[in-house]
Amino acid sequence: MSDTFKLKIDGKEIEVPKHYTLMQACEEAGAEIPRFCYHERLSVAGNCRMCLVEWEGAPKPIASCAQTVGDMRPNRDGSAPNIRTKGDYVQKARNGVMEFLLINHPLDCPICDQAGECDLQDQAVAYGRGGSRFAENKRAVEDKNMGPLVKTIMTRCIQCTRCVRFAAEVAGVEEIGMISRGENAEITTYLEKSLTSELSGNVIDLCPVGALTSKPYAFNARPWELRKTNSIDVMDAMGAGIRVDAKGAGVMRILPVTNEEVNEEWLSDKSRFIWDGLARQRLDQPFVRTDGKLMPATWGEAFAAVKTALSKPAEKIGVVAGDLIEVEQAKAALDLFRSLGVQNTDCRPAGAAYGTDGVRERYILNPTLMGVEEADALLLIGTNPRVEAAVWNARIRKSWLWGDLKVGLIGEAVDLTYKYDHLGTGGDTLANIASSDFYDVLKNAKRPMVVVGEGALCRADGQAVLAAALKVAQDVGAVADDWAGFGVLHNAAGRVGALDVGFLPGENGKATADILGGTMETIVLLGVDEMDLSRTGGATVIYVGSHGDAGAAHADIVLPCATYTEMDATYVNTEGRVQMTTRAVQPKGEAREGWAIFRAISGVVGKTLPYDTAAALRSLLQGPEGESTVFSGLGFAPGASGAAALKAAIPAGPVSLQSSRFTKVIDDFYLTNPIARASKTMAECSALTTALDTAVAAE
């Protein structure tokens, strides 16, 4: 029996798979079908009726989004059914639907934030009547509380239920629903509480009218006033595609860009709403500590102080790279300090031991973010993807919901929005996993996947955890010629890129914990704000970063740096995919790109680096012509090609597997980096989450 079906659409005969909806078939034939409730990534609701088409012989117009092609019958003579997406019949049907939709919709366009990018506006022009026959008073609906991110004007709502389906199906928090019926129907949140999902801002993009808009962006700008720049997000290690919308010198908003392999079309709330933190608490000029106080200085004065600090013995100088460091800055800093003989360089959190063997596949997510949709069993070790990679967590949920993915977790029991087998909390569970039922699930799976988080790797037995996890992956068949089912989920955008350029301890060099442990005379911090800086002792601390956060507070010399929206910079995501940000606005004040700061310092200390432009530095990273390096191509994840490198066992290291529990690496999803901590919006979200987590006594 054939799996395809023939149709004649607007006189053009096509053949499509039987599982297609009639709307998909019409679009395959080149027809444009208007819609409000239908969305490619959500279940079919069929409640706006805007997608009506004519099926010749049918008694009434057909809602094309809800009609599956396989359920249609051919004509009596066996010929393909005739579908018309144009003509008087279809136009009259759509005119009527649009008239109903606008019965209660207010004429808010002049004051509505959705104006200029509103589906209702566009479709009313294309498919609406010239006037309305409705003379009665319009209804009004009370606005609802959806928290500090989503602004509601519910009188504009057309009950498409996209937000309801997104919350239930993608975000996994059933907190939005419809109450009442008929004229009184309205969308509301559960007990009118704030949304608790890390993905709640996506309902703003999904809403086809102005009912749900961005609260922080309200009344800031019109879409036609904004400069739109495609870039990459650095709030986590996923590298989601984003569009930075700027007006004048400021970023006004950040929106997702569809990238099927990374973030589909979703974006986490942190990535979307931190834009106000890009302008607050910024370091816009150099500072040098004088008489115990950080005082503004010129670049010349700052460089003179840096020269003095770097004149110490090489073994007494340490360099640590932070979470948001771009590849160019890591490369320039590494080249400079190696030329000075400094071997104490590290880009990993204190206690981490991975990356030193030079095998890239042992510190990237080999199965890829998209690969979880192919997997049928997933073991998470010491990671909470809901806060470490929120958009990827939604993809895991999708695979669990629609693809029968089985998930097991070793680590802290948390709400991941999907069911999983909680195997245990620490290293002893990992050591004895072969005796668990979930081990059989992994063994019987066609595409098993084992993912380790930094919570399991940043501890004394981190190397043993990595070795044990890889052995589990090898034993259950997760490493095959066409499937590399083992990987590390990072949470810092700059980590993999810094590892790729070799930002690790050199010969006899010290790691992060020792550099920050009080034995150094000079410490250089490249945007380091998430580590314990209380034990640096009497060392001279040079901080290169963008915000006045923990690192700058401990510093003796502060060199202001550009953020990811202010430069063209290379980042490598957790899958090993090389990506680039694009400059959307100019750096603030006297801030400069990180690589340029180290190029200037190299001239001051007499070790001039061999590149004068970012392009020259990048061509050096890409290697000689004809020779392939990690940085040779953009947007490519190695994936299954890494399987061969994963077949060898890893030495467990000097410390054996310990039974202690894997600890979480992120305490507060909204405040994980200096940009987020400078954001007023993120502070509100954090305060609200803390309040929701507080136990309430029974009355």
TrEMBL record:
The keyword Iron-sulfur applies. It comes from Hyphomonas johnsonii MHS-2. The lineage of its organism: Bacteria, Pseudomonadati, Pseudomonadota, Alphaproteobacteria, Hyphomonadales. Keywords: 4Fe-4S, Iron, Iron-sulfur, Metal-binding, NAD, Oxidoreductase, Translocase. SMART domains: NADH-G_4Fe-4S_3. It catalyses: a quinone + NADH + 5 H(+)(in) = a quinol + NAD(+) + 4 H(+)(out). The keyword Iron-sulfur applies. It comes from the Bacteria. Residues 89-128 form the 4Fe-4S His(Cys)3-ligated-type domain. NCBIfam families: NuoG. One of its GO terms (cellular component) is membrane. Belongs to the complex I 75 kDa subunit family. Transmembrane segments: none annotated. This is NADH dehydrogenase subunit G. Its EC number is 1.6.99.5. Gene3D superfamilies: 3.10.20.740, 3.30.200.210, 3.30.70.20, 3.40.50.740. InterPro entries: 2Fe-2S_ferredoxin-like_sf (IPR036010), 2Fe-2S_ferredoxin-type (IPR001041), Mopterin_OxRdtase (IPR006656), Mopterin_OxRdtase_4Fe-4S_dom (IPR006963), NADH_UbQ_OxRdtase_75kDa_su_CS (IPR000283), NADH_UbQ_OxRdtase_ferredoxin (IPR054351), NADH_UbQ_OxRdtase_Gsu (IPR010228), NADH_UbQ_OxRdtase_Gsu_4Fe4S-bd (IPR019574).
